[in-house]
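Case study: SAC1 phosphatase.
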Amino acid sequence: LGVLHVGQRIEEQADFEKIYKNAWADNANACAKQYAGTGALKTDYTRQRTQWGLIMDGWNSLIRYYKNNFSDGFRQDAIDLFLGNYSVDEVEPASPLHVKKDWKFLALPIIMVVAFSMCIICLLMAGDTWTETLAYVLFWGSASFGTFAIILYNGKDFVDAPKLVQKEKMD
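Here is what the predicted structure looks like once written out:
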């Protein structure tokens, strides 16, 4: 490209290397935000790997997991509509996008978070005796574990799956 003279090596050009790596990482972040909803993973590795970058990669992975499973169905529906994988039927009055959520969709996660929080609070604020503390921790721990088990059993109700194009139709 004529950026370097004959015989020059990229490793010798520290300023250019830094600018190039930052541009590369910034582009990766922009693409990842559009596609996955978070910044790219390991961009600090491109720049210079740090412990904070490792923690942020873990955080971004958790956010991606949540978005992918619980809040990205509408994006796939929009892509399917845009690409023509779904065509709107003007005769059909009901929208396939409007699906009523069951009571457990909101209630169970709230119960689980409250029960888990109470379990932690009971651990941190011990009662008068260890048996009292143990009883509270066991009660709230079993309540949080029980609601978690119910959520896992009814997992498909909690996932935000695309509604316009069904998998059978895609095959």
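For the exam, be able to explain this: The chain has two domains: 1-85, 90-170.
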